[in-house]
Every structure is written in C-alpha cells, then in structure tokens.
C-alpha cells in the first residue's frame, strides 16, 4: 500500500474527477493526479508553494487559500485529499468541516497523516517536534467521525520509506517543506546529525527513514 495507490483506488475511475488537493505544497500529488486525467485544483497558504505547484503541474489549477476557509461553493468537487497537511492547520476540525462542505454528497475526503512514531519522526524531532500537532490531527479526525459528521469507510496504516544520500539531502527535504526549520538546524547541527544517524538505517545508496502513515477515507454524512 502507498498513498497514490490508495487515492487512485478511492476515486477510481480518476479520469475527469474534480479533485481538491488541500495543502498541495509544491504540487507533487497534483501533478500525478492531473497526469491520470483528473481535474485537479490545489490550495495552499504558502505563496512559494503555489508558485512551485503551478510550475510543476501546469495542467492543474492552484489558489492561495487556507484550509479553514476554502474559496469554493458547496459541492464543487467530486472529492478532496488532505495529504500530510492536516497537522499543519491551526484548526484541523475547521479544515475537515470545510472539506466536507466543498465535496458533493457521498464524495470521499482522503486524509493521510504521519503518526508520531517511526525513524523519520525520530530524525525530525530535534528539528521540529510534531508530537502535539500530529496528535491533534488524529483527535480531530476521531471527533469528526464520532460526531457523525463523517462516515469512515477505510482506516489503514502503512509505512513510507525514503532513502537519502546523506544528511545534506535529508535537510534539504525537510526544509523545502518548512523553511523555518533552518533556524533549528543552524542552532544545533551536531545534535541533529546525531539524531539523523541514530535513527536512519544504512542502505545501499544512503540512509533510509521510515514513517508510519494513517489514512482515513471519510464520507460526509448527509
């Protein structure tokens, strides 16, 4: 199981589907879905992310917006994806409610979130400790299901493995997601090196970090 396979399976057939990519970042997912024929719209609060996404996926549409206040009418999309982004939203419950509003009745919202465990989490922790915000995202999902706002049709955990040539490649990856992390890296370079080398497994071609991901396929109730 991997993220793209799960998304394609959920929205099959993907061709022609109107998909909203919430927290699209630099457009990697949007590009993959647009290449398979989906009509993709991506939103992100970051100006640089939107600029990069538009360059990477010219076949998709992008707008700068907050997940808590989506600039779209109700039932504008056939589904939505929130990929590794809900824990970055200040109010994850509001983001889930907005996702439910903009997808049509019976249309799924796929939420994929990293858990606060695994070697990738251990390597990241001295740079940015996401324990609390990852937990808050999971709590918001659980509360939305318990309240009856969503029906959960799938709940699966799988692991993403990434290999990095060296520490520099890893730091480039984590700062491309969040440039503000550079300050923590500059403040304790040796501690961060030790955390990375202690967490990563040596593999041919570099260092491997593994991150458990939990995916929910949520359908708005009513």
From TrEMBL:
Highest taxon of the lineage: Bacteria
Protein name (record): Methylase
Residues in Methyltransferase type domain copies: 20-107
InterPro entries, per database record: Methyltransf_11, SAM-dependent_MTases_sf
Source organism of the structure: Methylobacterium radiodurans
A GO MF label: S-adenosylmethionine-dependent methyltransferase activity
GO terms of biological process kind: methylation
Keyword set includes Lipoprotein: no
Keywords on record: Methyltransferase, Transferase
Keyword Methyltransferase applies: yes
């Amino acid at each position: 199981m991997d993220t793209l396979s799960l998304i394609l399976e959920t929205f099959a057939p993907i061709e022609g589907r109107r998909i909203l990519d919430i927290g699209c970042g630099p457009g990697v997912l949007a590009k993959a879905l647009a290449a398979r024929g989906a009509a993709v719209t991506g939103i992100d609060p970051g100006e640089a992310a939107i600029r990069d996404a538009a360059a990477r996926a010219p076949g998709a549409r992008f707008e700068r917006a907050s997940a808590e206040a989506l600039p779209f009418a109700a039932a504008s999309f056939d589904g939505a994806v929130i990929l590794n982004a809900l824990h970055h939203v200040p109010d994850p419950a509001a983001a889930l409610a907005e996702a439910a509003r903009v997808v049509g009745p019976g249309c799924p919202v796929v939420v994929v979130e990293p858990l606060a465990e695994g070697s990738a989490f251990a390597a990241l922790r001295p740079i940015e400790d996401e324990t609390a915000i990852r937990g808050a995202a999971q709590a918001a999902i659980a509360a939305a299901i318990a309240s009856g706002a969503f029906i959960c049709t799938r709940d699966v955990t799988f692991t993403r493995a990434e290999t990095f040539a060296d520490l520099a490649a890893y730091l480039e990856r984590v700062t491309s997601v969040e440039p503000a992390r550079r300050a923590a890296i500059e403040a304790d370079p040796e501690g961060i090196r030790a955390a990375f080398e202690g967490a990563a497994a040596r593999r041919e071609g570099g260092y491997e970090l593994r991150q458990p991901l939990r995916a929910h396929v949520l359908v708005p109730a009513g």
